[in-house]
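Appendix B, example 12.
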Amino acid sequence: MASKSGNIFIGVGGWTFPPWRGVFYPEKLAQAKELSYAASKLTSIEINGTYYGSQKPESFRKWRSEVPDGFVFSVKGPRFATNRRVLAEAGDSIKRFYDSGVLELRDALGPVLWQFAPTKKFDEADFGKFLELLPRKLEKRDLRHVVEVRHDSFNVPEFIALLRKFAIPVVYADHGKYPAIADITGDFVYARLQTGKDTVKTAYPPKQLDEWSARFRAWASGSEPEDLPRADKASAKKQPRDVFAYVIHEGKIRAPHGAMELIERVK
């Protein structure tokens, strides 16, 4: 019998952030224990360091060893693959990324996030070539990919059709400037909540946390929230989907508290 709902994973971006010490992390917690502590309170973390440079296999193995079963990392793909004029030439960068040991995360490996610069405009042919380069399976393991675009030129039905052809989701960005695209184009949903405030103890006020948790449950059950903007009017097939959501705002001091509140709400 099929599950009636996908899993909902909620967390923050990274785990090494000095202002969290004494606010999220206990005052005297050893820095070496921060990941295991964060993983005991959250259900996912977005790894940022992979965006800026290559990591080593032993690092991925160590990170996996410090989180409980069922915890999932999403991993940012390298900027060397996405910050280029011709995306069709990203093949070597994508290969180096996977050769660096990402699969050492084993069952804790979630989606790989490919993030594009705000200046990158939609070029259907070239973006399609990039999507073709993304491996769908390595070492008998199915891989998940999601793209985050930040230019308004992507907010068109043609982009949605392209993503659906490859069954790759687009990040829903709750952001002041980036396009908000809630179209479902793959078998999971990925949201980045970036308008929280450090003046609010839980990053987002309770009413907004309630609204987001309702959206997460709708996505997980296979529905589409009616209050989020879409680039294409066509609805996706109704089916349970995993949801990955990260509270990431500018100051980010209160991000873990926002994530923990959302986890409580979706239980």
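Residues 20 and 26 are 9 Å apart (CA to CA). The beta strands are 8-13, 44-47, 72-76, 109-115, 137-138, 141-142, 145-148, 172-174, 188-193, 242-247.
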